[in-house]
Amino acid sequence: MVASSLAFMTTQTSAPALSDAQREIADRVITSLAGPGASLRPDQETAVAALTVPGARALVVQATGWGKSTVYWAATALRRAAGAGPTLVVSPLLSLMSDQVAAAGRAGLTAATINSGNVDDWHHIESRLRDEELDVLLVSPERLANPGFGRRVLEGLRGRLGLLVVDEAHSISDWGHDFRPDYRRVADTWRDLDPTCPVLATTATANARVTDDIAAQLGPATLVLRGPLARSSLQLAVVGELDPLTRYAWVVEHLRDLPGSGIVYALTVADAERLTEAITRELGPHVPVAAYTGRLPADERARLEGGLRANEVKALVATSALGMGFDKPDLGFVVHVGSPPSPVSYYQQVGRAGRGINHALVVLLPSRGDENVWEHFATATLPDPAQVQAILGALEEGAPEPMSVVALEARTGVRRGRVELLTKQLAVDGCVERVEGGWVRTGRDWHYDADHYDGILAQRRREADIMRDYIAGRDCLMALLQRSLDDPAARPCGRCSVCLGRLPEGLTQRPAPDLVTRIGVGLRTRFHELEPRKMWPGAPFERRGRIPAGEAAEPGRVLIHADAPEWRGYLQEFARDEVSPVLLDHAVRALADWRSSWAARPEVVVALDAEGHPTVTEAVADHLATVGRLDRASLVVKTPAEAGLEAAISDGSAGGGVEADRWARRLLVPDDQVENLTGRWVLLVVDATSTTWVVTVAASMLRSCGAAGVLPLLIHRRP
Predict the structure, then answer these.
(1) Residues near 354 by beta carbon (within 8 Å), at least 6 away in sequence
(2) Secondary structure of 661-706 in HEC code, one letter for each residue
(3) Cα angle at 145 between 141 and 146, to 5 degrees?
(4) Helix, strand, or coil here: 437?
(5) Prediction pTM value
(6) Is the pLDDT confidence value at 337 over 70?
(7) Residue 403 bridge partners (DSSP)
(8) CA-CA distance, 479 to 485, in Å (whole number)?
(9) Of 197, 198, 205, 165, nearest to 183 (Cα)?
(10) Closest residue by Cα to residue 365 from 249, 240, 256, 234
(11) Which strand (E) or helix (H) includes residue 223?
């Protein structure tokens, strides 16, 4: 387990010693949490004592399981005993908040959380806070940025906040692996509420650069405590590179025998869902698993986390949405199906395992295709100057009225997710402000700091190089992770697959070939629903608001979803516009599976080549028309030049209004086809899209020309 003595400490200010009365209170807290006879370790006591001083700043960088939460519960108890106001804890995840509320209760403190999952309780919690009945309030960084929360809650805490705790504080730094703009605004919130309030920032995943950045934000007198980051309970291993489908089979073959219950991480939502299905098909209910992604409602995620804690499931197959804040001391294994782009984020995720047991297994299953995901992550959060200026210009034109994210998307053509990210980043820079009803400009100019962002990108690519070294086994795996976090105590662990020169006992390099084949065949029988869009996007598209029922598409089907490893070879054929008999058969099975939910049987098939696969699109449409005895009709797809547009946009970078407008200009229902469509149900076969605006616009056109209904069949929904 983690060493209990302080390995190294950097201080910019000296910490006081606890008085006997203070130590008695602190010991009472820790015995409530850890049992009779427990007491604060010297390094924990140093942090707690520092926080008894008004205006103190402390940053604790310690390994998972060290007891960082003990520090802020003990410090809260001391501050409350001295007559200070309540503690505000900024936590990243709903699951962490519920865990921490329970932990605070065990420590003798009264805690509550305000989050999106307990709206009905807000009024009561806020009343208790005003009446000094709460010792601790836990919120997300996003909640701090909410104007209503600021008006109702933060204003009431002005000048009387006892302690501010920023957990997972690496998120404050845009040099960190999980930078979030809302987190960056925490420092501004604290200075506005009460600059004399002590502040504690904690994290297990901050290298020297991130540590320095956080300390600089907290202030020049920040006490920085760093400890050793080695985890003696973890046995790390890397399996040689496997193709994506073989990785699924490896998990299926080994999962039953992995110790206890654990987490299987996947890089994408699609991978998490596919792998869950493969496991369930092969192992059945005796090895229960569930997919866990950020797309699930908060209450469902909390339910799944509870199931894992109670060992009701063997594993959660999760994206990075399950990470910070999840606490299960006896988690027995973590397997990564795909490598994260950063050794720091990898360390954070594997740190979920082995917190309260002597041995946990950590396995990485890399693939060359992972690097495409790395590059996406490296650039996804960096601002695009043209998009920023478009947003600022739209806010300027709309002034003084605030604009919502939806309105900004419609006005600028920037996709909604990017608008949400960029407005938060602009708020960090003080250029915009979130108010009731949306966003407004503050009047401050925005400057693109090219050197800064180039440095961030270079740092992320250096971290990717470290992951390449990790995958190649160029050094002890634990020592390599420690060095990536600038831990001077790094040394060979003696138990990882590099130190041993082999995989740990019970692990094999490759699964059985027939299992790989069987999983591929099984996954190729699944179909994804294509949810129809319900709202028009607005400008520059001429329409906005709800799509009329008489123009909307019906729920559709997708033959190949995202990068689908079970379709890997067939996707290569599809990219070359080559027709595969397997794909044709799959299309027939999709219709057979789908027909029970049809409002009416299709009578005519329309092929729409949206992204340059005319041969495949026509072949699928013709095959379904022949098998189903359906008529054929056609749409005209103009080239961008014929429609008076610039080159085609197919990567999903344009906003919905821009893309819908482009398709409205490019698509045409020929006059000689109208009679063939009038009063009839249409099966619309589309080759590929990532956004489905082409499907939405085409369905509207077909309905406007008299079609009774449109059933979309999308061959490939691109990631």
Answers:
(1) 231, 233, 234, 331, 332, 360
(2) HHHHHHEECCHHHHHHHCCCEEEEEEEEECCCHHHHHHHHHHHHCC
(3) 115
(4) coil
(5) 0.84
(6) yes
(7) 439
(8) 10
(9) 165
(10) 240
(11) strand 223-226
What are the φ/ψ torsions at residue 127 (nearest 5 degrees)? -65, -45
pLDDT given for residue 11 in this prediction: 47
pLDDT digits (tens, 9 = 90+) for 659-718: 999 999 999 999 999 999 999 999 999 999 999 999 999 999 999 999 999 999 999 999
Compute the distance between CA of residue 306 and CA of residue 690 in angstroms, rounded to an integer: 34
What strands lie across the sheet with 163-166, from one edge to the other? 8-11, 223-226, 57-61, 199-203, 163-166, 87-90, 136-139, 111-113
Contact 328, 353 (CB under 8 A): no
DSSP label of 19:
P
Q: What is the pLDDT of residues 257-315, one digit of tens each?
A: 999 999 999 998 999 999 999 999 999 999 999 999 988 988 898 899 999 999 999 99
Looking at residue 74, its amino acid is A
pLDDT score recorded for residue 74:
95
Given a contact cutoff of 8 angstroms between Cβ atoms, the answer to whether 682 and 606 are in contact is yes
Number of H-type helices and E-type strands within the chain: 29, 26
Q: Are 162 and 115 in contact (CB under 8 A)?
A: no
Neighbours of 624 (CB within 10 A): 22
Q: Give 522's contacts (C-beta < 8 A, 6+ positions apart).
A: 277, 278, 281, 282
**What was the pLDDT predicted at 324?**
65
Token duo for residue 319:
């994206």
State both tokens at 475: 């050094």
